[in-house]
Amino acid sequence: PLLLRLSALPPHALRLQIDEDYSTSTPPNRRFRVPDVLLPDVDSRKLHLSKPKTVDGVSTVALSSDLDVVVKHDPFELTVRRAGSGNPVLSFNSHGLFDFEPLQESKPEGETWEEHFRSHTDSRPRGPQSITFDVSFHGADFVYGLPEHGSTSLALRPTRGPGVEESEPYRLFNLDVFEYLHESPFGLYGSIPFMIAHGAGASSGFFWLNAAEMQIDVLAPGWDGTASAENGRIDTLWMAEAGVVDAFFFVGSEPKDVIKQYISVTGAPSMPQQFAVAYHQCRWNYRDEEDVAGVDSGFDEHDIPYDVLWLDIEHTDGKRYFTWDRSTFPNPEEMQRKIADKGRKMVTIVDPHMKRDSGYYLHEEATAKGYYVKDASGKDYDGWCWPGASSYPDMLNPEIRDWWADKFSYQNYKGSTPTLYIWNDMNEPSVFNGPEVTMPRDIIHYGNVEHRELHNAYGYYFHMATSDGLLKRGEGKDRPFVLSRAFFAGSQRYGAVWTGDNTADWDHLKSSIPMVLTLGLTGMTFSGADIGGFFGNPEPDLLVRWYQVGAFYPFFRGHAHHDTKRREPWLFGERRTALMREAIHMRYSLLPYYYTLFKEASITGVPVMRPLWLEFPDDKETYNNGEAFMVGPSILAQGIYEEGQKSVSVYLPGKESWYDLRNGSPYKGSVSHKLEVSEDSIPSFLRAGTIVPRKDRFRRSSTQMVNDPYTLVIALNSSGAAEGELYVDDGKSYDYQQGAFIHRRFVFADNKLTSTNIAPNHPGKKEFSTECVIERIIVLGLSSRAKKAVIEPGNQEVEIELGPISLRSGSSSVAPTVRRPNVRVVDDWSVRIA
Amino acid sequence: MKLLALPLLLWIFAATAAPFSLPLETLGIAPQDEAYYRGGVIKCRNGSGKFTRDQLNDDFCDCADGTDEPGTSACPEGKFYCQNAGHSPITIFSSWVNDGICDCCDGSDEYGSNTTCKNTCWEAGKAAREKLKKKVATYKSGVVIRNQEVEKAKVAIAKDEAELTKLKGEEKILQGLVDKLKEQKRLIEKAEEEERLIKEKEEKRIKEEAEKKAAEEKKAPDASQEADSQDTNQNAQEGESKVAEHHDGHVTDNENHSPESGTSVEELDIKAGTGDDALPKEMSAVPTKEQDLTSVNSEGLSKEDLGRLVASRWTGENVDDVGKGDKKGHEDELDIPEPAEEGLEDVHDIPEPAEENYAGYHSEVEDDRHKFDDDLSNASDDEYADDHEEPDESYKSDDDHKSDSYKSDDDHKGDDHSDLTASGQASWLDKIQQTAQNVLQKFNFFKTPVDLSEASHVRKEYDDASTKLSKIQSRITTLTDKLKQDFGNEKEFYYFYDQCFEGKEGKYVYKVCPYKKASQVEGHSSTNLGRWDKFEESYRIMHFSNGDKCWNGPDRSLKVRLRCGLNNELNGVDEPSRCEYVAVLSTPALCVEEKLKELQQKLDSASSDLPGHDEL
Q1: N or C: which end of chain B has fewer CB within 10 A?
Q2: Is residue A525 within 8 Å of A608, Cβ to Cβ?
Q3: Residue A372 resides in a domain
Q4: Contact criterion met (CB < 8 Å) for B293 and A178
Q5: Which residue of A has its CA nearest to B95?
């Protein structure tokens, strides 16, 4: 027998748990429930549902004032429906595909549990224990989510049913896939078993907390032989190799609400430091201190800003992490200090595979303490990775995570300084001689948990422990920055991720957008793809395009395999250097906007980079657009994904118009525009009705921009109004949690721009202040030809003249620009166009 | 002196003590540009607009090109001039102005930030002047050496050219002789052939007669028939052995194929797995590229070897190397078991870089080529040795270089051309002509049978003459090839032609032989970093390309940056991108007089710009 538990999570979420009833069955091991993923207060927040009304084997219970849960007893079916209309939103087991293989006390005579995969054997000592069920999303046109897969489609394509030629189900199984395909349902480095459904007037989500291998089929209408007459319903089939059912149903009126609910369960993305939002330069490998110094000064010589220089595995002494190859990096502290003198940071790589070398202190310690995962025979598992024979710390164990976190202290990590941050790679985990290049499923973790049960969360725990380490190192005052390749639901709390080892071709550039958008929809907003493509040498034109697209990724890093040619942005001739510089400048000028968006994400989970339909949920044209994207509510960009492309069709959603981000030309909304493509930039637009804060002075790094003045770009809508926000804090510490930040709302209406404080009042709070002023206000779509503006308080008059949208030689003066209002961003003020 | 010192004093005072009282009308403007900024309304340099005088340096960008904000950071494309009294003035990006980092040694770029910059111009300037002085000294001596080399090169090239002309003349004569001998040889052979035919006819006639006789006598098969059948037998045997060889060929083919069939068996295995109902199997059967790539044929591999094999995909390393100590750092793994042979054979999808093989192959070819070249040049050297009253400069250096870089060549020196030694050029040519003439005249075609000793004389003469001709032709080719090279505007690189330069970097010795090739040597193994391609950047870079192939990477190449130095020294070898090497070669060839003048001027002006510094 199985136990089913239902609980309500206000306002619009339902939790369904199904496990075996261990009072009646006594398997040697219980099923695994993934710990430390849900926010600790989820249990305390849940509401006990009122007593269900049961009529004819159907129980109905109110989830909230507008939602009911209907449970049909036999056959079992659960439906979340609108209370008023009775329209279903989500349903569970509507197609009766539920199957739960109970754990057996022992292996029945004559049965074989062992499985073979190539040369590998999985002993499967606990036998079959898989779970299968179907979930239906009612009123949905498309489903999204379930990272990570290579795909050029934003929506999840059906994998089975009429019209589907042949496809495997979407697989969630964290793997280090060599040269992955840009289009495949095969699982990549991370797994988030969260699906969002959207259609006109309906948004919902389903999250299954389970870290075992999972397969999900999206079933094409008519898959079950019934006519697909029913309006807008998508059926899905979920299977996991082990674990329990711990599922969440989210109902939103808007898609953003669904994300917020998911975030309320798995946690909001952490607020990054300012530098982390800027440009990162990486390569496997910058070989030595001289190389590092050369790349660093190369950026300066070409007036290209960057904030972080990265060191890949070769910086270590024989791939022993937390060590330095002293022949190439004799003075790491000095090197970091020189970089830090320019306000820049460094990142070193720390992977989970520990070199099995008796001279390596970490290996000694982990062995002595018994901190490695064990093979089926109980010995420390001995795998193979970069250092050769390697073992893996058991990150499921909180004690081991604490131990690991301590390794990041300045005393323990010799050669580290406060401006050094961390990169976690290979944490799927990647095991070169394991099945499918990962750990065998019968490896044993803390609490006698089999690897098969937690596989998809191993990288998550590793990321968590590393992030905690940096937090400890900084005594809780320095926000950690840790990039991870593997991830699971909740990884957003610990840092950034990237889409792994992509390839330098146009298809991978194209698929990077749906991939990053999908990560954003599932909580992982701080994500990006390697600029230029990791494997292979990008054609210079591809590299330029990649910078132009990638400058919009929330996580913006150039990276390359060690077999590739150098590709620092100044190596491809003056013209291309200028183009890449401009792409990076564009990102730097938008840093205040990005930082504000990261702040929003850190509260609501609404991603920095968004599918169009997140902003325009009623516009069906946008539902499966994976080529264009929004950055926040204000900017729309369309990637260019073909070599030598001459023109592109860009659909601009909504009723309001749009303005070209570079030259201010207006474009109508709800129209597909056929545009000429220039090599200068990718098509990008400002949404009428919004205000974007910028800083238009480019420095060597974001650190030097701290005191620079702002530019406000106001894009007026048809009623001459616009609004936007600006969030500023110290860019570094947690003082913002005690109120040390500035949060302003800018509203333009009736020819007047007003700045008001929207920071909540924290009693006994810390304060943040800045002398930064606004040096320029550009107003797009202004009908007034006024030459003056009046600033209040003070009744001070300033000039308005025509100015360019961006300061670049050759840009023409097109928009009324308030010259030097010089009002402080911390103050309340208004600027009236006189 | 005093007059000049005064404004300098003021400047320093202004920069450090009163940042905001700077004269806005000159801030960040180079002295030569000050005139541009006079007047009430000033144009943006790119013609995009104009600005008033009070908009100059008002910290708001009015000209996108930065004309109006030379002294602030307001315009992204602007430039800031720092005077750097005591050192050299520089122009920096506007983005560096007031960013908290001291860029100008006089600190003038940080007038408005919280950072206080020390004026370091005097020390920096002094150091720079010292450096410049040293550089000038180097150039001075370098220019002398260079001029000598240029002169030597002129002489040597003239000599080469003269030799070439002479050789071409000799070639012509010898060619005529060879042609004649060839004709003679042909005629002799014709005569011999005719003789042979006649003889054959006669023999046939005799044989037929004998057969007739035999037939008449009605006897058992005679000896000749027996011989025939033996012949047939032999043919049959030969045929068989050919077949056998053919079979052998097949056998090897099969062997070659067998790993492939192994692979397909493996594929079948995988497919069989697909049929399994179990969840993980089903999942693992996804027929994507990843799967194919994941499907390392791991049968027969130890766990370690499998790990290495999979790692090699990312690293692009030879699997064999992985165990042996390589860039990916498995140095300590000494006791790694060698993969079983069958196992390795099975591994089809891991391309073997086989760098050593490549290197071996190339170096062999290379060696041969050199051997050949040297034979020829030695041959002519030795041949002409008597002619040269004084040793030829270029040949001498040739020898020098050989002795230190191509030791093996010594072994071949003086070999197998004894026939050409010990006689002056004129005499040997005369002699050969005379002998040939004699032989030609002596030979009597009308004498039958052909005089065999005379015929062999002709043949020998023909062989001798054509051997000599081909040697001369090789020498001509060598010289022509040499003279075809780009030796620079003043032939200053002529003496590079037969030189090799060596530099040590870590465990490798790098050997750069201009106009030939470059290599990386470690112990006995040598990797070709590229063959001579060309000079680049007006003789500032030597480019070697198409070296040994890098697995998963480009063909190796090397760019040697040249700079002025008194000795030819190779250093700074580096590999910034995989298999793309760079190095620096100091050489007098780069010590150009013009540059010396320029540096001298710079030094003079740097020193003269310091009036009364001591008085400060």
Answers
A1: N
A2: yes
A3: no
A4: yes
A5: A699
Q: What is the mean pLDDT of residues B391-410?
A: 38
Is A156 found in the same domain as A28?
Answer: yes
Between residues 314 and 333 of chain B, which touch chain A (CB distance below 8 Å)?
314-316, 327-333
* Residue after which a domain boundary falls, among A607, A627, A645: A607
Residues 6+ apart with CB under 8 A from B462: B178, B181, B182, B184, B185
Residues B289, A385: C-beta atoms closer than 8 Å? no
The answer to whether A631 and A607 are in contact (CB under 8 A) is no
Alpha carbon distance A791, A834 (integer Å)? 10
* Most A CBs within 10 Å, among B110, B288, B312, B346, to test the A interface: B288
DSSP 3-state assignment of A59? Answer: strand
The alpha helices in A458-590, defined as continuous H runs, are 458-473, 506-521, 540-550, 573-589
Confirm if A633 and A690 have CB atoms less than 8 A apart: yes
Query: Among partner residues A115, A437, A700, which is closest to B278 by beta-carbon distance?
Result: A115
Of A365-369, B298-302, B311-315, give the range with the top mean pLDDT: A365-369
Q: Is B115 helix (H, G, I), strand (E, B) or coil?
A: coil
Put simply, the answer to whether A318 touches B331 (Cβ < 8 Å) is yes
A232 and A307 fall within a common domain: no
pLDDT, residue B320, reads: 57
Helix (H) or strand (E) holding B274: helix B223-275
pLDDT of residue B610: 61
pLDDT of residue A762: 67
Q: Give the residue-averaged pLDDT of A210-224.
A: 95
pLDDT band at B75 (very low <50, low <70, confident <90, very high): very high
Residue A827 φ then ψ, to 5°? -95, 160
Q: Among B19-23, B99-103, B336-340, whose mean pLDDT is lowest?
A: B336-340
What is the C-alpha to C-alpha distance for residues A496 and A447, in angstroms, rounded to an integer? 29
Residues 217-276 of chain B with CB under 8 A from chain A are 269-270, 273, 276
Distance CA B452, CA A687 (A): 104
What is A414-441 written as a DSSP string?
Answer: TT--TTEEEEE-STTT--TTSGGGS--T
How many domains does one find in chain B? 2
Specify which of A580-594, B23-37, B344-358, B549-563 reaches the highest per-range mean pLDDT: A580-594
8 Å CB contact of B77 and A807: yes
Indicate if the pLDDT at residue A343 is higher than 70. yes
B19 secondary structure, DSSP code: G
Query: Cα separation of B222 and B231, whole Å?
Result: 14
Q: Give me the mean pLDDT over the B538-546 stretch.
A: 94
CB atoms closer than 10 angstroms to residue A43: 11
Check whether B343 has a pLDDT greater than 80.
no
d(CA B479, CA B44): 60
Cβ neighbours for B379, distance < 8 A, ≥ 6 positions apart: B417, B420, B471, B475
In this structure, are A211 and A330 located in the same domain? no
Identity of the residue in B304, B577, B580 whose CB atom sits nearest the CB atom of A384: B304
- The confidence band for B609, taking pLDDT boundaries of 50, 70 and 90, is low
Which residue segment(s) compose the domain that B34 sits in? 2-119
Quick: pLDDT tens for A625-673. 999 999 999 999 999 999 999 999 999 999 999 999 999 999 999 999 9
| Pairing assessment for the beta strands A88-92 and A77-82 based on DSSP bridges | antiparallel
CATH number at residue B558: 2.70.130.10
CB contact under 8 A, A432 and B96: no
The residue among A79, A74, A75 whose CA lies nearest residue A60 is A79
Residues 6+ apart with CB under 8 A from A314: A284, A285, A287, A325, A328, A562, B327, B329
Domain boundary among B92, B119, B146: B119
